[in-house]
Amino acid sequence: MNQYLATGSHAESACALAQLDAWAQARALLNYDREDSPQAWYQVEWTLSSACITESVLVNDGTLDAAQQRRVIAWLDAASRKDISFEKPNDSGNNHHYWRALAATAIGILASDEMLYHFGIKTYMNALAEIDSNGAFPKEMARHENAIHYQGFALQPLVLIAEFVTRQGTTLYTYKANGHTLRDAIVFFGRAVDDPSLVKPYTSDVQSTNFGTGDFADFAFYTARFGPDGLPPAILNALMHPMTATRLGGCTILMAGK
Description:
Layout lengths: L1 H6 L2 H16 L12 H21 L7 H20 L9 H16 L3 H17 L7 H4 L5 H20 L15 H13 L24 H8 L6 H6 L5 E2 L4 E2 H5 L2
Antiparallel strand pairs: 1-2
Helix pairs in contact: 2-3, 2-4, 3-4, 3-5, 4-5, 5-6, 5-8, 6-8, 8-9
């Protein structure tokens, strides 16, 4: 899909769609159970996010096989519905919930599935209600030495949900909960990368600081829309390099520029 965006080659888009269609015809991501394998459940949400983002690009290529497109979209819709069906009222509602919501938002648009689409928007609003006065997600701050990492990991699906919904005409980026927007959580993440001591009120664990450009990949979409002004140096420095995140469909700078 990234090669198609970069080159315009329909051979590349056809190849990407054929791969998704092979999964669709095999009914992949549908034969598992949360109780038997929670890790399988997590893997499905990440794979679905990438696949749905990929299909959101491919659907715009009118040269592709219409029957394949229909199969892939129907399969992604069914897989996303199964993915969220395992959620329970007492689940923590942390980043895993957000990743499932990203897939639901993307395929909700593609399949005109209002239930999935509104699941994504509601999840985004609930996530913003979690942001504290510092801009942190408390549930991610509870991840000991990986607190900063998980703040960024939670942001990735949320930024993409905001991007998908904004492209439908609803400016979700500006939505406020308790006076906070998504930008507050983005700024806190960047500041914490620059100064890990900012998370000491949440955890005494020494923070893991092995960040790569992929940890900042979602901000390509944010800055393409709003620019870099006022963002912490860690984010600005990362944006000077190519950024790839497989869960977000690959090269985000390429996608954000289209």
